[in-house]
Amino acid sequence: MPRRWAPVILAAGIALAALAAACGGGEDSDEQAVDELPVAQSAVEQVADEQASTTPAEPAPPPPADQLEPEVPPPPEISAEEQGDWVRISPSGDFERIAVDESGRIIIAAGRGAGIISRDGGATWELLDWPGDQRFGVAVSPDGLQILVSGIGALAGQENTSLWSTDGGLTWTDTGRLVQTAVAQVTDLFLVGSAGTGLISTSDGGATGPILIRQGVDGDGNFAPVNITLNARRIDDIVLISASEGGSVLLTRTRDRGETIELLETGFELSGATVVSFFPVGFVLMSQGSGVLLSFDDGATWFSQNVGLEKFDQSGAYPALVDLVVMPGSALPILASTTLSLRFDPGGWEAIGRPGSQIRDLVVLPGAPPAVLAATADGVYRLEDPAAAIVTPGP
Question: How many CA atoms lie within 13 A of 306 on its CB side?
Answer without folding.
Answer: 22
